[in-house]
Prior knowledge:
3 strands
Amino acid sequence: MAEPKGYHRIEAWTNGVRVVLLGDAPDDETDPECEMHNCDAMGCSSLGHHVLARLWVDDQWLRQWAKEKTAAQTEEPT
């Protein structure tokens, strides 16, 4: 699927309570003083995408979906 004009692809992870958005941070030329993005403050790892935002979610449906998804991952195969 092509990205719509003006949009950028990101990755999102959730546990039903928090959503972590991952993607590409501004480059050193755009943000030399790390004012737009600071890896130390955001908890970025040295590998992979940068953490762009950590959001708290208060959504009952999302919490239930994540709970069911986690339960399905931890069930023993029959």
